[in-house]
Amino acid sequence: MVPGYHEVRELGAGGSGRVVLATYAPTGAYVAIKYLDAALRDDPRAMARLREDARVMVELRDPHVVRLHEYYEDVLDAALVMELVDGVALRKVLSAHGTTSPEAALVVLKDSLAGLAAAHAAGIAHHDCKPENVLVQADGTAKLTDLGIAAPAGEAGMPAGTPAYLAPERWAGAPAGPASDVYAATCVFFECLTGRAPYGTDHPAVLMRRHRTAPIPLEAVPGSVRELVARGLAKDPADRPPTAPAFVAELEAAAPAAYGPGWEQRGRRHLAEPATLLALTFPLAGSSPRPGVPVARRVAGRMGTIRRPRLGPRVVAGAAVIAVAVTVGLVAADRAPDRLSTGTIFTPEQRPPGAEDPPASTGRTSTGKAPSGKNPGSPPPEPVATPGPSRSASIGRATPSSRSAHPSRPDRPTSAPSRTPSGTPAPTATGTPPPAHAVSGLAITGIDAGGATIALRASTAAEVVLSVGFAEGPDPARLAEAPPYSLTLTGAGSHSRSVPHAFTAPACGQTLYRRVTVSTSPQAAGGPRSRTARVSGGPCPPPPVESVDIVSFDGATVRLRVRTGGTSAVTVRLESTQKVVGGEGGSTSGVQVLELSGRTDYTREVAVEFAAPPGCGVYVHRVVTVTTVPGSGTRSRDARLDLPPCGPGPDPDPSGTEWPPDGGPVPDGSAEDGTL
Length: 676
Known about the structure:
By secondary structure, this protein is α+β, with helices and mostly antiparallel strands. Helices cover 19% and strands 26% of the residues. It is built from 12 helices and 25 strands. The strands form 7 sheets. The protein has a 5-stranded antiparallel beta sheet. It is flat, with a radius of gyration of 35 Å. The chain starts with a strand and ends in a 34-residue tail after the last strand.
């Protein structure tokens, strides 16, 4: 748990971690805290990039980006304290309604590009733009969240992020950047229009091939926005808009031409309506402010202030939320909501350096006046970015990488000391009992082929016995367990220890599960911990193709058989050509691709795609050619389709009699018996 905050409830979980609703202890301010998943914490490159990006993100102020208040890290947790957006993820809107209107989809794209533009200007790439990371508020405004956070793929050679939204260059190993973010935002735009990502499927290898080589499925989107989709999903980054603002300019030119000058107002209304129907899922639905914290002080308080705890560089600023009921009413009335009207904008309190986290208070003295040195109406000080933290197992908190790296910290007056009523002597300390020995924190921070890493916190430096169990297998419900491993830790209140175990390496194409279970004596708060990791072997080499046969071809359907030497994926290409003889149409051709995997003997019937034959002519000659990747020769089969003739037939004799007539002269003038 991040010190200084009280968790209210969990809001959700995803590939990069879980998000909880929390309040800032001194003021009751609502925030969202994202605890990063262990797999992400175990990626040193991703964590190093996140620490660097956090220094910039705490300074980022844009209405289309969820604000970062502080980054926190210790031996057990890494967390982001963020602005609470009282809205719903775009993924929930699409899950409930399938698609959006074209105007609403354009609003999502415009707001996403605006947020990306602000991030790119600060030198930060998003890395994982997708519907889960677009938050829709009740006024129809969209905000980007999780900047710089991309869950590891979990498979060797796979780029971090969500495969359905990865640009072609990301599959080739290029780092995330503005061009790949524009591509991902266009994939989200496509999904708003059609209800699905551009290239479907959950198979990473197939997705990689389609993102890199498949034609853009423009036929699935309205014709009025096809040019925007084609620009944003261009295979070559050089063919996409050079920047997010440039793409916004193209959008603002295309949208009015297609949907009229009021497209954006209608789009926000169309986006707000399904969002407000999900209002009961908003973070603050059913939540109420902590008692004893006056609304007036929360609203008039310290917007944009900085909180620096005693240990670790942390920056906190104000968070703003909209009350659901008021916003729904304003959207229904087609009015923009007033963010101050509900009295629910909460801001963290600025505290002097080195101060401990105080308990919640009403913020007023017994006389009802604000404490000295506090001026609620004064303008907020500008936040100061702090250097990224480094892990320290000895103190269990994020510590600065160097003392000189800290910015100067201005002095601030403190609240007036409490007064003891006259005639009542102050209590006198009679001795402090020693603290009870307990384990307050326990976590499995890493699992790899050589074992696991365990971190724990204890209230004293006394002895803690750690027991670790290991299990593995292809089925997560039935794992083979190994004998447990025990060790004793002592001499410190915080420990991070690697426990060795030789896990089995997965074969190519195989997936294995590794489970680690840990317990302590004395028992840790919350009991034992367990964590399961999924690992996959590298891709298997393509199997040899032993034979390819065309069993039959009737001019419309081909029946083929493929035999391979393994179960890995094989690609089959069907090339078709058609030539019209004696009619209109000439020659046409096409290609169809099949993906076969999981067996060694395949029989398929495929309807071959040919151009429609003309109504008349002599005949149509059709040829189908089958090749495989990996290759095993080429097979072809042809068919002929006869056509009705195009010209008129011979005219019949108008008299209706045979020619020549019986007994009459033949055309050369001789008689029937050969005499003249």
